[in-house]
Amino acid sequence: MSGNACQALRLILYQPQAHYRVPFTYQRRHTYPLPSYSAVRGLLGNILGIRGDTFGEDPEKNEDFQKLKGLKMGICGRFESKTTEYTWLRNLAETQHVKAFGAVENRVRFGVGEHPGGQSPVLIDLLNEVRIVVYLAHEDPSFLEKLSQKIQNPVGRLYPLYLGRAEDWVVVEEIKKVSLGVTSKDAHFEHFFWVPEKPWPPDIPFDFEKVQGLRYRVPIFWELRDGSRDFRYVSAKLNDGRFQGVSFLFDKSFGRKGLPVFLAGMEGE
Known about the structure:
Helices cover 14% and strands 45% of the residues. The chain has four helices and 17 strands. 28% of the residues are buried.
């Protein structure tokens, strides 16, 4: 950060379809219009080839993982339409298997061998023609350069690039270094935004109460503890792109109107 300018890496990610699940929805699985911070952070970890808890390794010993902790991230995006898909999800609970097959040891039904478990009909909301804009800032410019190179040539990645579900593959449409200034502009920017309660840098005059939108605790990081995920969160509002009387970092090089940028730290609450 220098004066009122901030250097950042801008990513534009395209997905034909995506589902960013609202975690407390089940029979009908609703989606947020944007991925969470933890989902994008996971994408970056995948690109960097960080083999963490799920591989039985200690991520704290990984230098890139330590660098990720110092990352500042802003997320916004838009989609063309939303559809609802009716599908079956397999339930591997023992009670569901017994209900379907009559006994734990049995996997034959109507004379045909089947996969274990039961099935549950579920409605899943899907976003179509999705474009997510991610801004990344870091006190170490060399780390942003490394991220840029790895994204362009992800030879060390752990999986195919996805965001949301494993089947929601990502195409990186743009990687660009941009300069962000500070402004206050009343406009509708036609994107959804995660707006953290305490955006970075802290010296920008900012009134969280003037930001429209519902308030959420958005997951920013998780780690395995005793076999379950222990999440950390950041308090943020989901905004539909309308801002009035709010100061923010601004990317004037994006499109016709430019784009507000709200950077959140990766430390969480």
